[in-house]
Design a protein that fits this description.
homodimer; 188 residues; Arc Repressor Mutant, subunit A; Tetracycline Repressor, domain 2; DNA-binding
DNA sequence: ATAGTGATGACAGTAACTGACATGAAAGAA
DNA sequence: TTCTTTCATGTCAGTTACTGTCATCACTAT
């Protein structure tokens, strides 16, 4: 006889996504989530450090992907080229989960608290990219600046990709945004 | 006979800054702040929408300064030039309050919650800059991208300026960071 | 059998916020 | 003056996110 149903964490995550989607993040209490998952509030906080973190559990994997791509970029690649390759790799990952990404983004856009969490995760990604560049021998302030610019590119491209009516290729949008950046920064 | 001492808001802000500096943000309760200001918790929340907002009341003025500078930039200025002028104007404002800025930044660095709030304020600035550029006839995605890049420049430069041992000129650091950006994005 | 182990429940406590109502000096109208 | 209205503050009860602590009990290894 099983004492508890399996995959508490997964059930909590699913219940949370459903409720955030149905009523919005602010109108959902942790007690609601736990109840739908057949668990208690206390157990929710054993699996997620806070109410927002449910939506950001993938951040760690994304960071690893980005950092690895930068570290493994060819030696010949300039800093901005290295992070661009990295972003494209991430782009392909998102392409496979567009529906989920759109749903998640809609939820985040509905809550200032969630936007704040999203921004600090992106900021952490920028710092990780900068570190990866330093491993490649890129000096500061170039490393830090390139990390921040990469995240700026990602933000803009992701917005365009998510809000475009007909499904497009995120990697392609990223390449286009990079092209725009080069135009904007070109000295005339 | 005066019923209340004057400038409740100012007293609350000062008490909060003192306590955040003495014990850190997390170790300070709103009750502590209200008590030091000779007021009640409820009154704190009448003046500040939350515990973090005390540190960000200047954001509105900064946004106005930046937006005005972009709108009033010469017609001949390219998008990136317009926001650069804008950032330099902000830089001069910060130069005059370096000690305060350093103290405030130390407090923010000590709390993830405060970093999140800082990031969403910067994000709001990026959006405001993008809007100002659209008023100048700059089309998307250039406007949005330039706004984000401007904030990236500001973040990197501000960090360098705050952490440099001998006081430097923020506007100068900003110009240097822009130069770095041009190098990084230049096609080889 | 016996002794852990580890995920969960139960429960009390803190602190950030919110809503509703009361108070009384100050400012203006009569 | 006297009456009325305004408005910043106090008071208090309530909600909710989160934490610390201890109990429970199927499962596992010895």
């Amino acid at each position: 006889m099983v004492r508890w149903e399996p995959d508490s964490r997964g059930r909590l995550a699913q219940a949370a996504m459903e409720l955030y989607g149905e009523r919005g993040f602010d109108q959902t209490t942790v007690a609601d989530i736990a109840q739908r998952a057949g668990l208690t509030e206390r157990t929710f906080f054993r699996h997620f450090s806070d109410k927002r973190e449910v939506l950001f559990s993938g951040a760690h994997a994304l960071q690893e992907l980005l950092v690895n791509a930068v570290v493994n970029a060819p030696d010949s690649a300039a800093p901005l080229e290295a992070v661009s390759l990295s972003l494209e790799a991430a782009g392909n990952l998102f392409n496979a989960r567009r529906d989920f990404s759109v749903q998640r983004q809609r939820i985040i856009e509905g809550s200032a608290e969630l936007q704040e969490r999203e921004l600090i995760k992106l900021s952490s990604l920028a710092a990780a990219l900068a570190n990866a560049l330093r491993q490649r021998g890129v000096a500061d302030p170039t490393a830090g600046l390139t990390g921040e610019v990469a995240i700026a590119l990602f933000k803009i491209s992701f917005e365009r990709w998510v809000s475009s009516s007909e499904p497009s290729d995120l990697a392609e949008v990223l390449r286009d945004s990079l092209e725009q950046l080069r135009v904007v920064t070109a000295t005339t």
